[in-house]
Specification:
Layout: H1 2-21, H2 25-51
Helix pairs in contact: 1-2
Length: 55
C-alpha cells in the first residue's frame, strides 16, 4: 500500500512545480509540504515493514 501513496506524493510534487510556474506560491508550498510528509511517512513504513519481513 505505501507504493501507491509514494506515487501520490510524487504527483503532489509535480503539481507543486506546476503551481509555481503559475505564480501560486501559497498552494505550491502547501503541496510540497504535503508531499514531503507523505513521502516521509510512507518510506518509514516501507523500511520498517521490510526490516521485520512483512510485505
Amino acid at each position: 500500500m505505501p507504493y501507491v501513496q509514494i506515487l501520490l506524493a510524487v504527483m503532489l510534487v509535480l503539481l507543486g512545480f506546476s503551481q509555481l510556474k503559475e505564480k501560486r506560491k501559497g498552494l505550491a508550498i502547501f503541496l510540497f509540504f504535503a508531499a514531503a510528509f507523505s513521502l516521509f511517512i510512507n518510506i518509514t513504513i516501507l523500511f520498517r515493514s521490510s526490516a521485520y519481513g512483512i510485505y
